[in-house]
Specification:
Elements: H1 5-12, E1 15-17, E2 31-34, E3 43-53, E4 56-65
Parallel strand pairs: 1-2
Antiparallel strand pairs: 2-3, 3-4
C-alpha cells in the first residue's frame, strides 16, 4: 500500500481535544493540543510528554500559535 502526500500530512497533525482530562495515555515526546479557552486569543494550549519520571511521563504545558491560515 502506498500513501500519498495528503495521507502523510494528516498523520503528522497534532490531536486537538477540548479538555486536558481527556488525555488518557500521554507518551514521551507526544504533543496534544487542548482548546479549552485558557490561552490568549489566537493561541492554543499544547500538552507534551516532557520527561520520564519514576511514576510515569511528566506533562509540559504551554500556549502556542494556532497555526491555521492567517487572517488579515
Amino acid at each position: 500500500m502506498v500513501l500519498g502526500p495528503l495521507a502523510l500530512a494528516g498523520a503528522a497533525q497534532a490531536t486537538v481535544l477540548s479538555r486536558e482530562q481527556d488525555i488518557t495515555d500521554l507518551k514521551l515526546g507526544q504533543r496534544v493540543r487542548i482548546d479549552d479557552g485558557t490561552c490568549p486569543a489566537g493561541q492554543i494550549k499544547e500538552v507534551s510528554g516532557a520527561k520520564m519520571t519514576e511514576t510515569g511521563v511528566l506533562r509540559g504545558r504551554k500556549c502556542v500559535p494556532r497555526g491555521g491560515p492567517k487572517v488579515k
